Every structure is written in C-alpha cells, then in structure tokens.
Amino acid sequence: MTSIPMRGGIRGTARIGVLGGGIAGLTTAVALRNAGLDCVVFEQAPRVETAGLGLQITPNASRLLASLGVGDAVDAVATRPLSIDVHRWDGGRRLARTPLGDACVESFGAPYYTMHRADLQQSLLRSLPTGTVRLGHRCVAVRCAPETVTAVFADGSEVAFDVLVGADGISSVARRAIADDLRRFSGQIAYRGLVPAGTFPEWEAEPRVRGWFGPSQHCVCYPVASDRFISFTAMTPDATASAPEDRTARPAASAGPARDEATSTASLARAAAAAYEGWDPLVLRLFRSAPTLGLWRLHDRDPLPRWSTSRLTLIGDAAHPMLPFRAQGANQAIEDAVVLSACLRQADDQPMALRRYEELRLPRTTRIQLSSRESAEVFHLGDGDRQLERDRDMPERWALRNNEWLFGYRAESAALS
Ligand SMILES: Cc1cc2nc3c(=O)[nH]c(=O)nc-3n(C[C@H](O)[C@H](O)[C@H](O)COP(=O)(O)OP(=O)(O)OC[C@H]3O[C@@H](n4cnc5c(N)ncnc54)[C@H](O)[C@@H]3O)c2cc1C
C-alpha cells in the first residue's frame, strides 16, 4: 500500500483524501485548509481543467468564495451582470427582467457572477499549496471498512485514509461504494460555445444574462473571462434519445462535452440552427459566430437517501448531479465544501462529522435537484395558455425577493447552528 505523507489533520492525525479536482474537489481542499485541515486531491486528468465554458455563480456561493479568501481573485475575472432578461423565442419580446448587480448585493450581501469555469478553478488552485493536487491519478475502486477507507488507483496503487471525499463528478467511482443507481438521461442535449464579445457590440456596455424561452427548448448567454467572450448554452431535445437511463453510452460529463470527435463545429452549428429555426435572430447569430461548438448530453440522478458511510462521503455532482436549469450544480458543490469542512473541524469524531454534513446538506440539494427537473418543463412550455400564464407570472416569480430561499441561504451559518 502506498503511503502518502501528510501533515496535520483532525487532531493532528487524520488523513483526508479527495477524489477529483473539479470545482467540488478544489473548493473542498481550500475549505479544509482554511479550517486547519490538510488533504490531498487525486485528479485523473494530467492537468487541472483549463477548458470549459461559462458558469453562473450565485450569491449563496459567491459569499462563500469570499469567505474562503478567493473572492478578490474571482471578482477580478468575473462579470457582475446587470440583470437576467428573459425573452420570447420568436421576435425576442422581453418577458421579464430581474435586476442583479447592486440589487443582488443589497438583497443578499454578495454578488451574482458570470464567469469562465477555468477562471474559477484557477482561482481555487492558486490558493492551495503546491503538491495538494496529484494529477494523473484515476481512482478505479473505493473500499470501505469501519476504521478506514481505501482508494485504488488505475496504476495499482492503493491509499488508505481516515476520511475520503468523493468529488469525482456524475460518473463517480466513490458513489458506487454507496449506491448502485444509474444516471438518468433527460432527453435534452446542449449546444455550447464561446463567442468573442465584439460580435455583439450592442451588448458590450450592458452585461446581462440573456435567455430565450420557447417550446421544448431554450437558450441562455452571458459574458465571461473579463467580458472578453459571450458563453452560450442552447438546450434542445435529443432527436435520437430513447433510453431514460444509460451507464455506458457517451460520457455524461457535466463539465465537459460528450462530443464525438468526428462531429465538426460546422455540422453542430447547422444542427443547432435547424433546431432553432424561426427563433430570435440574435440566437442564430450566437451559433454562427462561435469558432467552436460543443455538444453535451444532459444527465442527472435521483436523489439518494444517504451519501456517506463512516469514512466516505460524496460532494458536488458525485452526491447530487442535477440538470442545469437552475444553474446550481457548482454553487451547491461550493456550499457542500464549506459545510463539510466545518463539520470535520467541529466534530468529536469523523463518522459523526460525515453524518452531520449529510443531514445538513441532503434536504437542500434534494429540493434543488428536483426543482431543476421541474424547471425544465416550465422553461420549455409550448405556445398556449400555460405558457401565457407562465409569462404573466414570470416578473414576480423571478424577482429576487422570491428567491431568498436559494440565493439568501447561508451555508456557513447552517453548519454552525
Ligand atoms: C450545460 C451546463 C451548464 C451548467 N451551468 C452551471 C451554472 O451556471 N452554475 C452552476 O453552479 N452549475 C452549472 N452547471 C453544473 C456544474 O457544471 C456542475 O455541477 C459542476 O461542474 C460539478 O462539479 P464537480 O466538481 O462536482 O464535478 P466535475 O466538474 O465533473 O469534476 C469532477 C472531477 O473529478 C475528476 N474525476 C472523475 N472521475 C475520477 C476518478 N475516477 N479518479 C480521479 N478523478 C476523477 C474529473 O476529471 C473532474 O476533474 C452546468 C452544467 C452543465 C452541463
């Protein structure tokens, strides 16, 4: 068995491992370090992801990033959009405007950001000591015992920990030690791309989250990377979809494209334009202007009744993968990380800490997982009475004051209560 030297830990002795160096894993490492606990992160990739597209980071998570000491780094590269504007699919008539910017800070004490995923990951990585993240370590199995938990890696090495945190995404190996469930294909795919900001000079002085809702599909875009690019995501039914669940089909990466190498940007742009024929010309201009386009298949899983054993727990998409309709997957991972590290810092023993973490997090993430599925239906209503009713209610429903439960949530206080 490989021995990994570590300093400190719970009561100076615990060895904590984290599987996966995505947003959940890196935030966990930063939060543990802030709590005075060391850990090692094992990431399968040869380098921490520098690709990827946009993320909306909402005040429930941006306040935590600030408390972890990465707020300034994030603020330097993120955009504070003025509002979320929702438009009708044809003609582009505006249905609702939710003010963000200063209104969001006044309401929740923290900003609403749009940013490039890689910028967030780099901000987190830079605040960790060199050597915290071990790259090129693919975990292939996790074995749980009452007093220890062991990660087995693809090169045959095995490492035992007092606590192991599975932050290895929707296809988590760690999750298999806890549940035998399948991921669920939503029937939706997403075309995603980055467009140089100069393509839309009319938007440059007015950074906003802009969305278009229509029958069976929608499109959303916003500025990222210090306003240099517009990131867009267009979600539409997969014409080839059949099975609701699949374990073996193309990868369900929530952070990376399930893209057939042979699929060219030109053919994806043609397919997207065909799916959105008749939509607001601004949407079609997004597809035309993207130098590269990716295709994602959107999966989630049913909520679990529990996600910890005495020594192993899950976090982020490994614990509660959700559809992106509420833009909360990464935000919830950040909340998880802060609560988990607070529980590990406070508890008398580690199994108790993991139990408490799960008790605090499961109800909230379950609610958001399920409401993300419901949002898919509401966003994509066909033209008709229900859609008209939705559009009438939208300004009120999307008002910041009606989203206090989501954006005003203080995970750090919940962990201390
Ligand atoms: C179209 C789309 C739009 C989205 N928009 C938003 C948004 O605006 N806001 C938001 O909050 N969320 C959004 N999300 C969700 C968000 O991307 C995910 O919830 C988030 O990336 C989850 O982070 P994670 O670290 O848990 O998992 P991942 O990002 O999947 O990271 C897992 C990491 O673990 C590594 N790994 C995997 N398996 C192993 C293994 N066996 N051994 C070692 N390492 C391993 C991977 O290489 C990866 O680095 C969106 C998702 C999609 C698909």
Any overview of this molecule?
With 417 residues, this protein is an alpha/beta fold. Helix content is 34%, strand content 23%. It is built from 13 helices and 17 strands. It has a seven-stranded mixed sheet, with helices on both faces. Strands 7-2-1-11-17 form a five-stranded parallel sheet. The protein has a three-stranded antiparallel sheet with strand order 8-9-10. It is globular, with a radius of gyration of 21 Å. The structure holds flavin-adenine dinucleotide (FAD). The site of flavin-adenine dinucleotide has 37 residues, from helix 1, strand 3, strand 12 and helix 9. Flavin-adenine dinucleotide (FAD) binds next to helix 1, strand 3, strand 12 and helix 9.
Quick summary of this structure?
The chain has helices at 23-34, 59-67, 71-77, 101-108, 117-126, 173-176, 265-275, 281-289, 329-346, 350-379, 385-397, 404-407, 411-416, and strands at 16-19, 40-42, 54-57, 83-88, 94-99, 113-116, 133-134, 139-144, 149-153, 158-161, 163-166, 184-196, 209-214, 217-224, 229-237, 293-300, 312-314. By secondary structure, it is an alpha/beta fold.
Pick out its properties.
417 residues, alpha/beta, 7-stranded mixed beta sheet, 5-stranded parallel beta sheet, 13 helices, globular, binds flavin-adenine dinucleotide
Report on the biggest sheet.
7 strands, mixed
State Rg. 21 Å
Percent strand: 15-25%
Structural class: alpha/beta
* Strands, count: 17
- The overall pLDDT average reads 91
> Which residues sit in consecutive blocks of at least 5 with pLDDT less than 50?
1-12, 243-256, 258-262
The helix-strand sequence is EHEEHHEEHEHEEEEEHEEEEHHEEHHHHH
Q: Judging from the principal axes of the Cα atoms, what is the shape?
A: globular
Individual helix count: 13
User: How helix-rich are the residues, as a percent range?
Assistant: 25-40%
The oligomeric status of these chains comes to single chain
- Distance separating the two termini: 39 Å
Spatial sequence of strands, sheet with the most strands: 5-4-13-14-15-12-16
Bound small molecules, by name, code or SMILES, are:
flavin-adenine dinucleotide
